[in-house]
């Protein structure tokens, strides 16, 4: 009597031997890392500050 | 093994097995939640409930990794067979540990809101359209479901009730559960970890389990390729020589169709049975003769060599095969008889 | 199936005796299993991320504050300076569990209220968990006294910013649990936010915006963030929007649909 499921077993393990490491590698690849540039950049100053004239040097 | 279905057929070896297992689990959990926090480099400690969930979750993964190594290890080195003997207890305890992890997670992450906590488990994260942030919880839920089914059907009652082919098909899903757990970890906890340790442990576990299976599989395939050569007279094949079968032991003869036959010697007699134990497909040919019976190396099921029947009151049967001698060569008829068919043993005369 | 002892080296589970060489091997395996699990427990257990210093500050005792209760973008209290709280501050509000204070405060928004509860604190941001009897009620005028009033300071615009950080639920992140961020916590964060916990933006860099790390989120009009933005929670994103200051609380007004997952 053929050892039942031997072929299923073998097939499953060939698939898992590829799938499991691939899953781990993919998950590590998508991991987020810190930003390469500054994480806070002021794009525009507030309107009031932008309108106010720059202070003179002797003030 | 039992004729009546007691919950567990306890014996000394099972008790020792379970004690060692529980010691390992208790040591793991206590070290994780009581000792390790004192050595963490943190501003404030992790919340106790989350720490417990982490402890039980990682413990369950490591236990399942070990369980899956037992099968191939036992093929590579028969000294690991005792680990296989009570593996189902190992599985049930693993399921209990995994269930504790899940219950703890639900009790903290999904409780205290207006939404029913079990609905919340599925409804809180629905980012199914992306890899990063994918609801890794569903892999955990699926794996837990499989483990619960396996634990619930682990008793021999289910083996008989469902019939061995169906039971085995259900229990092969332990591999699917393992894959689901790996997905659960790598898409969940692994994404948040700053240290590479968890990734290394998961990676090593995967390599170990897959690697052992592939190595053991390769050796089995090699055995299958060395199918018994045909004798001059069809349909007989050459099983081996009388001298290659030690008294009280057997040899395994691979056939061309992938089947294997166990040829046993007991005293001055030779008999041939299917190599596949009717219980859980253990390799009978790797067993021994005890009390005049072929004894399976996995769980100790026994069969009379001349008719393949388990001694009363047990009812298991395996197929038998015809043998004849050609000088010192043992010839085997590869056509199996119905399980339980009596075949006159071949008499061996000393050379 | 009891019987004679098996051949040396052959294990039969239901027989008590185990061949000696095999027994020694199994003792080694058992020791390795227990020892190995203990070692792994220690390694994994000590290998924790720092979950930060978010705290449920019960030890500080029940706090009492008076201020204007506002609904938008999320229930906040513009605290009136007094003897108990000398400095003007704006504090987020919550109630026990994963729920919003909106239900309790629905008839009180825009009014001066007395609030009692316990604090969640983390770094430069805090939150009051309103709890207990009579813990949220309108301030009553004394006899023959005019009704008390308080006009909070206007918001101070800080310009338009591009920030990198993570959307967290304020309650967990400020100390309801540790850790209260990261992908493993995403589902809990989504559940908290959808149940009423104010979402906060935690900048990747500490003190990134005017020395502050945590910003209360709002939509571009200053109301709550619309709809289901769960896809952007607990992952590192880049987002642009106006930042304004309400006393000591920064508010980040964004178009959440323009968030970019990094």
Jot down its keywords.
heterotrimer; A: 59 residues; mainly alpha; 2 helices; B: 351 residues; alpha+beta; Rieske Iron-sulfur Protein; 5-stranded antiparallel β-sheet; 3-stranded antiparallel β-sheet; 11 strands
Detailed description of the structure:
The complex is a heterotrimer of chains A (59), B (351) and C (262). Chain A is mainly alpha-helical and 59 residues long. Helix content of chain A is 51%, strand content 8%. The N and C termini of chain A lie far apart (100 Å). The model of chain A has no long low-confidence stretch (mean pLDDT 78). With 351 residues, chain B is an alpha+beta fold. Chain B folds into two domains: 212 residues, no CATH class; 111 residues, Rieske [2Fe-2S] iron-sulphur domain (Rieske Iron-sulfur Protein, 3-layer Sandwich). Helices cover 47% and strands 12% of the residues of chain B. Chain B is built from eleven helices and eleven strands. In chain B, the strands form three sheets. In chain B, strands 2, 3, 4, 8 and 11 form a five-stranded antiparallel sheet that branches. In chain B, helix 1 packs antiparallel against helix 2 and helix 4 packs antiparallel against helix 6. The radius of gyration of chain B is 25 Å and the shape is elongated. Chain C is of the alpha+beta class. Chain C folds into two domains: 84 residues, Beta Barrel (OB fold (Dihydrolipoamide Acetyltransferase, E2P)), CATH 2.40.50; 106 residues, no CATH class. Chain C is built from four helices and 13 strands. In chain C, strands 2-3-4-6-5 form a five-stranded mixed β-barrel. A five-stranded mixed barrel of chain C has the order 8-9-10-12-11. In chain C, strand 11 and strand 12 form a beta hairpin. Chain C starts with 19 loop residues before the first helix and ends with a strand. The N terminus of chain C is likely disordered. The interface between A and C is medium-sized, with 15 and 20 residues.
What's this, in brief?
The complex is a heterotrimer of chains A (59), B (351) and C (262). Chain A has 59 residues and is mostly helical. Chain A is built from two helices and one strand.
